[in-house]
Amino acid sequence: MFKQADLAYDYAALEPTIDALTVETHYAKHHATYTNNLNSFAEKAGVADRDIEELLADLDSIADPALRTAIRNNGGGFYNHNLYFSTISPNGGGEAGGAIGEAITKTFGSFDAFKEQISALALGQFGSGWAWLETDASGALSISNTPNQDNPISLCTGKKPLVAIDVWEHAYYLKYKNLRADYIKALFDVIDWEIVDANYKKIIG
To answer: Do 107 and 165 fall within a single domain?
Structure first.
């Protein structure tokens, strides 16, 4: 059974960056629905005992095309939101430090250049989707964007996500309305780089 990641802070803890109603609606309704749907479809497909990363990387193993699509969408929603909510916190903001900070500077030239490039990908994602900071097993960083609930794992890129910028309208519309760029800029005030750094170190060993 797939379990929605516990929220490590109160709904209001990310204010003023993200308002309490948005966090509650996003986490307790949207994320919960993806989780419940994934469990239902995974049970029907006989894959409920699989690791979510393994499952998303091997969607072609699901023979039924309707179940494959449902698990791609809801499994992606489950995984993406687990990452999103676990890498933002009231203690976030500032520049990345540690190993991830060094890797960002090495790859993009500076932290500000990284912010500018990933923000452009997030802003430029047409319709619903995500922008990602990702790494391969060697620690090489890259950025990308994906539509809907796809991610680097489900697209079999060989990369694992580190930072997820959710640009579905439910992530920001209650507070920022149609001003996606303002939301993206503000989101950096709550990205917790210590958590991202710890995740990065786990991936690269």
So the answer is: yes
CA–CA dist 128, 89 (Å, integer): 23
Same domain? 133 vs 171: yes
DSSP state of 60: G
Peptide bond into 152 cis (omega under 30): no
- Does residue 132 sit in the same domain as residue 195? yes
pTM above 0.90, yes or no: yes
Looking at residue 103, what is its pLDDT? 98
Token code pair at residue 139:
């620690």
State residue 12's pLDDT score. Answer: 98
Two tokens at 129? 């989707």
With beta carbons less than 8 A apart as the criterion, state whether 108 and 119 touch: no
Indicate whether 14 belongs to any domain: no
**Same domain, yes or no, for 194 and 137?**
yes
Q: Which has the closest alpha carbon to 36: 1, 6, 66, 68?
A: 1
Give domain status of residue 27, yes or no.
yes
Q: Is 21 helix (H, G, I), strand (E, B) or coil?
A: helix
108 and 73 belong to one structural domain = no
Looking at the chain, how many residues does it have?
A: 205
Convert the pLDDT of each residue in 89-106 to its tens digit. 999 999 999 999 999 999
Q: What spatial distance separates the first Cα and last Cα of the chain, rounded to whole Å? A: 27
- CA–CA gap between residue 122 and residue 184 (Å, rounded): 7
Is 171 inside any structural domain? yes
Same domain (yes/no): 73, 160: no
